[in-house]
């Protein structure tokens, strides 16, 4: 599983995504859970997918850790997925919906926001 995030110049920006990676890995001990980025950070998605294929992975789930389905999820991610599929035709690739499009994620964020009201 690859958690796919935007990336940023500031190294500390990735800290919450690393924590998320750790939480998912703890829930899925038999799954290799890693991070990959669109830009500005490494590894980028195609490189991480290639590393996993080299390790013998044949099924891959990409989870976009984006709140909305803007241009990166609607345009950039499909291009990267097409590249991964072309480079590794033996790899089965599944792409989950963007995290922020999921009702349970939105409910959790709403719960957090409501909990912040005095």
Automatic annotation (TrEMBL):
Classification via InterPro entries: CbiX-like, Sirohydro_Cobaltochel/CbiX
Name of the molecule in the record: Cobalamin biosynthesis protein CbiX
UniProt cross-references to SUPFAM superfamilies, sorted A to Z: Chelatase
Membrane-spanning ranges: none
CDD domains cross-referenced by the UniProt entry: CbiX_SirB_N
Species name: Pseudoduganella umbonata
Pfam families registered for this protein in UniProt: CbiX
Keywords: Lyase, Metal-binding
Record has Cytoplasm as a keyword: no
Keyword Metal-binding: yes
């Amino acid at each position: 599983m690859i958690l796919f995030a935007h990336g940023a110049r500031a190294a500390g920006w990735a800290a919450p995504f690393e924590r998320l990676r750790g939480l998912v890995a703890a829930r899925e001990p038999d799954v290799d859970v890693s991070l990959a980025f669109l830009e500005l950070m490494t590894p980028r998605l195609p490189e991480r997918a290639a590393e996993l294929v080299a390790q013998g992975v044949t099924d891959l789930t990409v989870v976009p850790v984006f709140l909305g389905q803007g241009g990166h999820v609607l345009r950039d991610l499909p291009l990267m997925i097409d590249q991964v599929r072309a480079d590794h035709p033996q790899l089965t690739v599944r792409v989950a919906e963007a995290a922020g499009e999921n009702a349970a994620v939105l409910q959790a964020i709403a719960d957090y926001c409501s909990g912040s009201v005095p």
